[in-house]
């Protein structure tokens, strides 16, 4: 009778401990399949627990929830954002929404994110702080799963996918922005979903273009142009989700523009590899307009649909400024644009974009009035959007490393894989535009949209640190041990910071040792 142990592959003395464990775990196809879905499921479950447990604490309107909770509820009831009486926040805590007026309020963000927040309020009532935040918590949890899927498509490595998604699951900025009724976590979800669809589009279209070169004989002349691809359902889906991101906050337009250019550039490079003679013009002037229609058209449609409540009611801000509702909406958007471009006001937690990589001024979301129950006479409860410092600064270093690899590839004319370049594309879309906004008042927590690309880049850099299959055994052993030590430390730092990410009552001195830089207080 054959023993189960005899079915396992023999141990390879030239393999590291991790490589032996992985070989044993994946030797049985059924076990490999189970691990393939179990690992990301457990990471997503962990993310959900960290985001949903005690979500209703504090039962207060925190930071800019004062805008979005009330805007969401008036949207749900009136179809447009309305003004509220001065004591609305206190009355809402008891479920009393009688402070809501019918007079339209001037708001500077599109409606979709607030409609999503309104779903939770409608389900649990206007007085439920859990209801205010539950939809952002759910989308924040799903964002962790999206990071896994994006990393898997980029690297074809479930290990890298689990590491990247696990880092986001335990990161403080991801946790905090999932536990508050703001728009930025919702924006992050839609941008990353659009990114996933872009990658699925590349996986579908690249083989079609590669087949051109494969079918050409050695004596055949290169084709002058390639096919114009109209059947691109994933590109349409990307346009829909990027349009949804813009319908949450206008900064979603940057992602639509940058990843639209990415599609055109990768189309051009694929046509060059296929041997198409006029590959640049073929991609830009023949395929480019089609790709534009397939992506921007759905994005515009979704954006307009998000304003349905404003269109079908008469009381929305500037709704009656012109008989043509589209003209009235255009004029409203002119007013919004004027607000965004001229917004310069002092705020104690304002942080210009150049400071963000240094993490000089994270935002204090909430400070408890009289917290108790910490076991000492001097307690404090806070919610700070400071990320896990170990993950943040390592991600910054990883981004610099990926940029170095990209530049070196250009100089050496050597190919650089998408796993090394794609996180940089994401950072161009989510960070670089903020460097151009001048003196406008902005905040460190806007970087939540960057974090998925940062942790994916960090996971890719950790793979490089761990050593490839061709590296000597001692090099792989040292690299993999370093990665394990780093990941263990990142988990411990998150455990240490979790109380100040969730508003737990802690001794004042314990809170002080979490503030590693003066600007963190």
Write the layout of secondary structure elements.
Layout: H1 17-26, H2 29-52, H3 65-78, E1 82-84, H4 88-92, E2 100-104, H5 112-124, H6 129-155, H7 158-170, H8 172-178, H9 184-215, H10 233-246, H11 252-273, H12 279-305, H13 308-312, H14 325-342, E3 364-367, E4 379-384, H15 389-412, H16 418-430, H17 451-466, H18 473-502, E5 505-507, H19 508-512
Helix pairs in contact: 2-6, 2-7, 3-5, 5-6, 6-7, 6-8, 6-9, 6-17, 7-17, 8-18, 9-10, 9-11, 10-11, 10-12, 11-12, 11-16, 15-16, 15-17, 16-17, 17-18
The shape, in one word, is: globular
* Subunit arrangement of the protein: single chain
Q: Percent helix among the residues?
A: 55-70%
The largest sheet has its strands arranged as: 3-4-5
- Taking all Cα atoms into account, the compactness measure Rg is 25 Å
Counting DSSP H or I runs of 4 or more residues, the number of helices is 19
Q: How do the helices and strands follow one another from N- to C-terminus?
A: HHHEHEHHHHHHHHHHEEHHHHEH
The number of strands is 5
What structural class is derived from the secondary structure elements?
A: mainly alpha
Mean pLDDT across every amino acid position: 91
Main beta-sheet strand count, sense and barrel state = 3 strands, antiparallel
Given as residue ranges, the uncertain stretches (5+ residues, pLDDT < 50) are 1-12
β-strand percent reads under 5%
User: What is the distance, rounded to the nearest whole angstrom, between the alpha carbons of the first and last residues?
Assistant: 67 Å
């Amino acid at each position: 009778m054959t023993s189960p142990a005899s079915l396992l592959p023999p141990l390879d003395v030239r393999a590291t401990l991790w490589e032996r464990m992985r070989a044993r775990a994946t030797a049985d196809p059924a076990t490999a399949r189970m691990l393939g879905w179990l690992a990301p499921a457990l990471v997503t479950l962990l993310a959900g627990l960290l985001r949903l447990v005690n979500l209703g604490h504090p039962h207060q309107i925190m930071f800019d929830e004062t805008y979005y909770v009330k805007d969401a509820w008036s949207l749900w009831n009136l179809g447009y954002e309305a003004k509220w009486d001065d004591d609305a926040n206190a009355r809402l805590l008891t479920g009393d929404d009688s402070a809501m007026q019918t007079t339209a309020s001037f708001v500077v963000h599109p409606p979709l994110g607030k409609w999503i927040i309104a779903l939770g309020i409608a389900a649990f009532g206007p007085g439920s702080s859990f209801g205010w935040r539950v939809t952002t918590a759910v989308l924040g949890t799903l964002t962790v799963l999206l990071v896994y899927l994006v990393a898997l498509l980029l690297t074809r490595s479930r290990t890298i996918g689990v590491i990247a998604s696990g880092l986001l699951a335990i990161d403080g900025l991801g946790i905090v922005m999932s536990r508050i009724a703001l728009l930025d976590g919702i924006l992050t979800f839609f941008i990353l979903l659009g990114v996933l669809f872009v990658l699925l589009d590349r996986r579908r279209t690249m083989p079609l273009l590669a087949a051109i070169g494969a079918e050409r004989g050695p004596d055949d002349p290169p084709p002058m142009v390639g096919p114009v691809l109209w059947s691109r359902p994933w590109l349409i889906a990307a346009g829909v989700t990027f349009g949804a991101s813009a319908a949450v906050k206008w900064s979603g337009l940057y992602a639509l523009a940058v990843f639209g250019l990415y599609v055109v550039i990768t189309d051009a490079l694929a046509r060059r590899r296929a041997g198409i003679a006029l590959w640049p013009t073929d991609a830009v002037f023949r395929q480019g307009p089609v790709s534009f229609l397939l992506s921007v058209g759905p994005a515009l449609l979704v954006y307009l649909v998000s304003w349905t409540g404003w269109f079908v009611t008469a009381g929305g801000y500037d709704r009656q400024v012109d008989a043509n509702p589209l003209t009235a909406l255009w004029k409203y958007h002119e007013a919004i644009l004027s607000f965004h471009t001229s917004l310069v006001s002092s705020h104690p937690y304002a942080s210009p974009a150049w400071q963000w990589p240094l993490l000089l001024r994270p935002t204090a979301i909430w400070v408890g009035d009289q917290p108790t129950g910490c076991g000492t006479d001097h307690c404090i409860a806070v919610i700070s959007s400071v990320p896990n410092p170990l993950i943040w600064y390592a991600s910054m270093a990883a981004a610099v490393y990926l940029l170095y690899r990209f530049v070196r590839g250009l100089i050496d004319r050597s190919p650089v894989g998408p796993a090394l370049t794609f996180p940089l594309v994401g950072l161009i879309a989510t960070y670089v535009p903020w460097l151009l906004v001048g003196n406008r008042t902005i905040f460190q927590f806007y970087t939540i949209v960057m974090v998925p690309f940062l942790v994916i880049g960090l996971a890719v850099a950790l793979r490089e640190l761990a050593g490839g299959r061709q590296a000597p055994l001692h090099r792989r052993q040292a690299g993999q041990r370093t990665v394990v030590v780093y990941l263990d430390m990142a988990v411990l730092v998150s455990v240490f910071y979790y109380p100040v990410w969730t508003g737990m009552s802690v001794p004042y001195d314990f809170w002080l040792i979490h503030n590693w830089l003066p600007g963190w207080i």
